[in-house]
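Budget justification aside, the reviewers requested a transparent look at the raw inputs and outputs of the sequence design task funded under Objective 1. We therefore reproduce one unedited record. The lines immediately below are the structure tokens for a 306-residue chain.
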């Protein structure tokens, strides 16, 4: 069988080993080389172009049902941690939660920590916390799991006093809402720390982009062709509504949208983003306000009637 393997950036080092195993079974193997940030970004075009019969996508759970002529297998990668460090991190997390008198906690994690989350829950319950898992939106598969674009699990856990994110880095936790205090327990860093103020800064920046975009006369509407990001209906609607407000708008389509690919479109004053909502984390590098389509209603309300 001809198989194409796809890895997120952090797992690309495993590509040769996985290729060797499959080649030993008699398969022909291609490795998708383009950057991959999520299961929203299956390498369907590459697979079709090399006539692969199957995609094996590593490191993420299924994002959405994909109607494709190609078999798709998802192989999540579960992070193994040093539990001596894990315990130290959870002890500090418990101390910080006690300091704000939190008793009920919504526990969230990226899919790599799905297996570890069971032990995290048990450890916290031993120290007297009530730990709940909420279910995320349409693109997540496990209770408590969050994506950069889907933090519903944090708010769907019922009544809680705080949210505890167990995992590495700040990409996922800065996508969580700040309606409850958010604590990061990072077993890779070996530390626990509050991140609520940083989330509020991100939220304020987002509001700032919306306000700045009210002055724009001309909008580029960003449409990604990635299978889990394409939003033609949202893009067309944005164009129509902006034109109704007297603004110029153009639909800009690309697989990968970046400040570099857009740099020479000098005529736009702002962008409406219908693709990955975390594109606007990078708003400073675009040099113009980037507003997610989810915030379009708010933007239109704030715009003066021409
Ligand atoms: S945050 Fe962006 S890259 Fe990650 S899964 Fe969501 S749409 Fe894809």
């Amino acid at each position: 069988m001809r198989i194409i393997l796809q890895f997120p950036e952090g797992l690309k080092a495993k590509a040769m080993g996985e290729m060797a195993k499959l080649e030993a079974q008699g398969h022909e193997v291609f490795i998708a080389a383009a950057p991959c940030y999520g299961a929203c970004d299956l390498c369907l075009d590459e697979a079709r172009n090399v006539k692969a019969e199957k995609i094996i996508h590593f490191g993420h759970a299924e994002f959405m049902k994909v109607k494709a002529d190609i078999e798709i297998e998802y192989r999540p990668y579960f992070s193994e941690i040093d539990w001596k460090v894990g315990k130290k991190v959870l002890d500090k997390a418990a101390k910080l939660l006690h300091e704000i008198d939190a008793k009920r906690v919504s526990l969230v994690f990226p899919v790599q920590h799905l297996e570890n989350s069971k032990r995290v829950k048990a450890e916290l319950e031993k120290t007297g916390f009530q730990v709940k898992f909420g279910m995320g939106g349409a693109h997540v598969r496990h209770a408590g799991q969050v994506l950069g674009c889907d933090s519903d699990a944090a708010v769907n856990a019922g009544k809680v006093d705080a949210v505890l994110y167990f995992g590495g880095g700040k990409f996922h936790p800065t996508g969580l809402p700040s309606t409850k205090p958010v604590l990061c327990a990072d077993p890779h860093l070996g530390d626990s720390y509050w991140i609520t103020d940083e989330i509020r800064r991100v939220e304020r920046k987002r509001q700032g982009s919306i306000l700045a975009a009210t002055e724009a006369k001309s909008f580029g509407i960003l449409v990604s062709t990635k299978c889990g990001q394409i939003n033609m209906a949202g893009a067309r609607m944005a164009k129509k509504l902006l034109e109704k407000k007297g603004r110029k708008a153009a639909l800009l389509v690309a697989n990968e949208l970046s400040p570099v690919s857009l740099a020479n479109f000098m005529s736009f004053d702002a962008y409406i983003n219908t693709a990955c909502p975390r594109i606007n984390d990078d708003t400073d590098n675009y040099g113009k306000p980037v507003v997610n389509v989810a915030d379009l209603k708010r933007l239109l309300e704030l715009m003066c009637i021409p």
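Residues 196-213 form the longest helix (18 residues). The chain has a mean pLDDT of 95. Computational costs for records of this kind are itemized in the attached budget.
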